[in-house]
């Protein structure tokens, strides 16, 4: 089976993918005289865009942002596929090409009026068109009002969906709780339904984005359940379990609608007899680190976890103390004090010249004054270091572009 090229990282951060349709597409002449044939693919309906995924991996994905769309209407004409009247006509001021030749690269923004036609193979245009027009109207509003209207649409769609109990593994499972939740990944929030039974925890996304229609976690495999913040609100819940039969450690970070829902799910998870958590008191973890049975790295990750930091959220990504200052030597003598930075000062005060400039700027400022203009950790800073490992995150955060080459991270010494 071919791997899906479309991911939610191709959308704006926080944008929601609703559903997709099997279609055939063509771009109308005279703008595209070379493309006369219909091409097979899938049309993705998202909260702020339409994305066409060409079946041919060589061809780029085409994203039509709704804010750049002139009109969306049902199209009837004799000049179509064997007289098919199940067609959608989309006119836009610009569109975006992504993943041409299946290569992750900066997106191409085509600033031209264009018209795309989509012939639906199975779905009916008259059923899809009202949803698209509703989102198109939202795209004409100011950002805050647009987001509010989208959330209203989302809540309306979600209220009509219940968990499909045919996915239950065991007929004798007893349902304990069903609740709406979001699966959180870096720069991605995917809404769905959480179902807790006496044996398992299930997550069923509202869309077909995930590889499996339903995520199933056996309660006996769960080793950790931690209440976390998400976007500065106490609505997060991170679950760690050991996947069987390979023993791989997996994580699920959920955000609930409010703290009450989060606390209810957390309590009912802990109430299940099948749940047996690995609990080690904080003083014992510190003692293990002091005795050398726990590495510096693992202990730092443990401390980060206590501070609500997780790899699943770039806004509260784990932080590691900046200790070493020698990034030139091939080997380091850890007993040599010269390799360590001055720990009596914050990073911003290590260079006297830079510190003096900051103080001068501080004295010239109006109230409220501040010395440092940025936080020590933010999504942009995190991706500055991770851009080579996760270039798709940078493209998502920077609207399809990499940062200027002069500002790219090359080595710690610089």
Automatic annotation (TrEMBL):
Xref: Pfam families: Beach, PH_FAN
Stretches assigned to the BEACH-type PH domain: 170-270
Annotated BEACH domain residues: 274-414
Superkingdom of origin organism: Eukaryota
InterPro entries, per database record: BEACH_dom, BEACH_dom_sf, BEACH_Domain, FAN-like_PH, PH-BEACH_dom, PH-like_dom_sf
PANTHER family, per database record: BEIGE/BEACH-RELATED (PTHR13743), PROTEIN FAN (PTHR13743:SF123)
Identification of the protein by name: Protein FAN isoform X1
Organism of this sequence: Vespula squamosa
Phylogenetic lineage: Eukaryota, Metazoa, Ecdysozoa, Arthropoda, Hexapoda
């Amino acid at each position: 089976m071919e791997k899906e090229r479309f991911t939610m990282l191709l959308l704006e951060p926080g944008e929601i993918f609703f559903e997709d349709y099997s279609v055939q597409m063509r771009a109308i002449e005279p703008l595209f005289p070379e493309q006369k044939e219909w091409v097979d693919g899938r049309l993705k309906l998202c909260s702020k865009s339409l994305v066409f995924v060409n079946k041919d991996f060589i061809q780029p994905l085409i994203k039509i942002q709704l804010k750049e769309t002139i009109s969306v209407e049902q199209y009837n004409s004799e000049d179509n596929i064997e007289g098919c009247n199940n067609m959608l006509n989309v006119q836009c001021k610009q569109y975006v090409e992504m993943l041409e030749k299946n290569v992750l690269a900066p997106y191409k923004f085509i600033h031209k009026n264009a018209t795309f036609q989509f012939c639906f193979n199975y779905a009916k245009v008259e059923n899809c068109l009202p949803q698209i027009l509703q989102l198109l109207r939202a795209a004409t509003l100011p950002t805050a009002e647009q987001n509010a209207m989208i959330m209203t649409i989302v809540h309306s769609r979600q209220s009509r969906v219940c968990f499909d109990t045919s996915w239950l593994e065991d007929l004798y499972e007893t349902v304990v709780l069903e609740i709406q939740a979001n699966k959180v990944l870096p720069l991605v929030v995917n809404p769905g339904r959480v179902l807790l039974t006496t044996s398992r925890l299930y997550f069923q996304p509202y869309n077909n984005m995930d590889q499996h229609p339903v995520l199933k976690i056996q309660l006996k495999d769960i080793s950790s359940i931690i209440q976390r913040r998400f976007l500065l609100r106490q609505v997060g819940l991170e679950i760690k379990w050991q996947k069987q039969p390979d023993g791989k450690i997996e994580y699920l970070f959920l955000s609930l609608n409010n703290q009450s829902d989060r606390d209810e799910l957390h309590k009912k998870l802990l109430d299940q007899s099948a749940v047996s958590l690995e609990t080690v008191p904080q003083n014992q973890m510190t003692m293990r680190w002091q005795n050398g049975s726990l590495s510096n790295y693992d202990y730092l990750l443990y401390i980060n976890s206590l501070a609500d930091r997780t790899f699943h959220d770039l806004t509260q990504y784990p932080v590691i103390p900046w200790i070493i200052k020698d990034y030139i030597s091939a080997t380091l003598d850890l007993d040599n004090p010269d390799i360590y930075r001055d720990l009596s000062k914050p990073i911003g005060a290590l260079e006297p010249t830079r510190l003096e400039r900051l103080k001068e700027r501080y004295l010239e400022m109006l109230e409220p004054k501040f010395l440092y203009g940025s936080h020590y950790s933010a999504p942009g800073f995190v991706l500055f270091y991770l851009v080579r490992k996760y270039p798709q995150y940078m493209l998502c955060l920077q609207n399809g572009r990499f940062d200027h080459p002069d500002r790219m991270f090359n080595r710690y010494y610089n």
